[in-house]
Each structure stands twice: as structure tokens, then as C-alpha cells.
Design goal:
CATH superfamily: P-loop containing nucleotide triphosphate hydrolases
Number of strands: 9
CATH topology: Rossmann fold
Strand content: 25-35%
CATH architecture: 3-Layer(aba) Sandwich
Number of helices: 6
Distance between the termini: 26 Å
Helix content: 25-40%
Order of helices and strands: EEEHEEHEHEHEEHH
Strand order of the largest sheet: 6-7-3-8-9
Mean pLDDT: 82
Largest sheet: 5 strands, mixed
Low-confidence stretches: 1-20
Shape: globular
Length: 197
């Protein structure tokens, strides 16, 4: 199991977990409860500038909720989210920020971009995501259930499990993992070891 290290102090600018430059996206100890359900339980995650990160996990595991936090549609109960060095939690100039992103996007977030598409169209979407990264150096976060898409487009993959980042690494590291929880997810096995049809 690969977990993110403990978060930095809440009031300081984020430091890179790896490398020496600041990340494009830094999520620090983000927690969110909706009603009685605890959706996010202290998520720590970084996305480097120009990187494509795929977020995978079981249905209802909090992937789309995390994505909504990154675009400012939801506010965490606890924690901070930094985008390009700016803390976006309760920002009063969010509309101005959105306009600047629309004019010249440096970061694009995708929620299930290949869901419901046939394999040929899905492949063209994956190629488009790769081209945006390669030609323009865009930072991308892709939430997906499509493991082929995740392996095709992502530099790194984060596995969100029970509201926390359980794994964060390359696609090769994910595939080579001997962790039972990760293997069950990759092979589509239920908790009891039976294959999910």
C-alpha cells in the first residue's frame, strides 16, 4: 500500500511531495461529510504541472466529489486545496478565476470522459487528452472507471478507497502491486473473491 505522507500545516503554501517545484494541484487533508456519510476522510494528493493523473476507485467512493472540490463546486469541511499556488477555499474572486482559466486553460478536469462510448470513440477521446498534455503542457485530472483509459492517458494513477488515497504511483506500479485490495479492484473481484460479471 502506498499512502501520501502526512499533510503540511494548514496555513502554509504546499510543498512538493516529490521533486523541487510547486505542484499545479495540491490537496491537503480534505474531508467532506454529506449528511451522515463521510465521503472524503483526509485526502492528500498532488498533481505536478503538465502531469495527467487518473483517479480510480469503486462506485460511490468519492471520486466525483473530490473533482467537484477541485473546481470549487463543493467546499471541504476540513482541509485546503491549492491550484497553481493559490488557496481556492471560500475565494471571493472565483468568477474572475474561472474566466482566466477559460481564456487560457492550464488545467483540465475530466469526469468519466469515455463513459458510455464505443471503443473507437473512447480511443479518440484518450488521444485528445494525451495531445493536450503533450502539445500544451496541460495538467489534467481524469476520474474514470475505464482502466484502459487510465493506463492510456495517465502519468500517475491514484486509487481512492474509503475516502482516502490508498495508492498513488505509475500504471506499472499499480499493475505490479501485490496488494490484495488493488488486485481485487483491477480484476473486478468482489470482497469475497468472486469475479464480478
Amino acid at each position: 500500500m502506498i499512502e501520501a505522507p502526512p499533510s503540511q500545516k494548514q496555513s502554509t503554501k504546499p510543498q512538493m511531495l516529490r521533486g523541487s517545484s510547486s505542484p499545479m494541484i495540491a490537496v491537503r487533508s480534505v474531508a467532506k461529510r454529506i449528511g451522515q456519510q463521510e465521503i472524503l476522510r483526509g485526502v492528500d494528493l498532488e498533481v505536478a504541472t503538465g502531469e495527467t493523473l487518473a483517479i480510480i476507485g469503486r462506485s460511490g467512493g468519492g471520486k466525483s466529489v473530490l473533482l467537484k472540490h477541485l473546481v470549487g463546486l463543493m467546499t471541504p469541511d476540513v482541509g485546503e486545496i491549492w491550484i497553481d499556488g493559490h488557496n481556492i477555499i471560500g475565494m471571493k474572486k472565483r468568477v474572475g478565476l474561472a474566466r482566466s482559466i477559460i481564456r487560457r486553460p492550464s488545467c483540465v478536469l475530466y469526469d468519466e470522459p469515455t463513459s458510455g462510448l464505443d471503443p473507437v470513440v473512447a480511443d479518440s477521446i484518450n488521444r485528445l487528452i494525451r495531445r493536450l498534455q503533450q502539445r500544451f503542457g496541460m495538467t489534467s485530472v481524469v476520474v474514470t472507471h475505464d482502466m484502459k483509459s487510465a493506463f492510456d492517458v495517465a502519468n500517475h494513477i491514484a486509487y481512492l478507497h474509503e475516502g482516502r488515497i490508498y495508492f498513488h504511483g505509475t500504471s506499472s506500479q499499480l499493475q505490479q502491486s501485490t496488494d490484495r485490495l488493488i488486485q481485487d479492484f483491477l480484476l473486478g473481484r468482489s470482497e469475497h473473491g468472486a469475479a464480478v460479471s
